[in-house]
């Protein structure tokens, strides 16, 4: 479906400029759609063909996304506590 929509949007972008007067609104709509479809196609290729699926499975095996987010949360909390302590020591 993504491939069909890429061709469709490209065709109508060309058509919107070929008519007289040029239809800039039609061009803008299909330009945005073309970008969205190309992005979606890239994401599909990244996940299914270029190793994204294997990376996701490896992350899941290590404890998943929750473990990574929890580790990041703990790191941020530690840094905030350091900054708060530093600010309190400056204020004395």
Question: Major beta sheet, specifics?
Answer: none
Written as H for each helix and E for each strand, in order along the chain, the element string is: HHHH
The CA-CA distance between the termini, in Å, is 65 Å
- What shape does the CA trace take? elongated
Give the averaged pLDDT, no decimals: 87
Number of strands: 0
Percentage of residues in DSSP E strands = under 5%
By secondary-structure content and strand pairing, the structural class works out as mainly alpha
**DSSP helical segment count:** 4
What's the gyration radius in Å? 24 Å
- Poorly predicted residue ranges: none
Considering DSSP H and I runs of 4 or more, what fraction of the residues is helical?
Answer: over 70%
Please give a structural write-up:
The chain is mainly α and 92 residues long. The protein has a domain of 50 residues. The protein contains four helices and no strands. Helix 1 packs antiparallel against helix 2. The longest helix is centred in the last third of the chain and has 28 residues. The mean pLDDT is 87.
Write the layout of secondary structure elements.
Layout: H1 2-18, H2 24-48, H3 52-62, H4 64-91
Helix pairs in contact: 1-2
């Amino acid at each position: 479906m993504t491939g069909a929509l890429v061709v469709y949007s490209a065709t109508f972008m060309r058509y919107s400029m070929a008519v007289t007067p040029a239809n800039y609104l039609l061009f803008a709509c299909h330009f945005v759609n073309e970008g969205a479809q190309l992005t979606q196609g890239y994401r599909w290729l990244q996940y299914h063909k270029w190793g994204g699926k294997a990376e996701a499975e490896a992350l899941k095996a290590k404890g998943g996304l929750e473990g990574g987010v929890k580790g990041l949360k703990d790191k941020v909390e530690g840094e905030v506590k350091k900054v708060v302590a530093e600010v309190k020591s400056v204020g004395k």
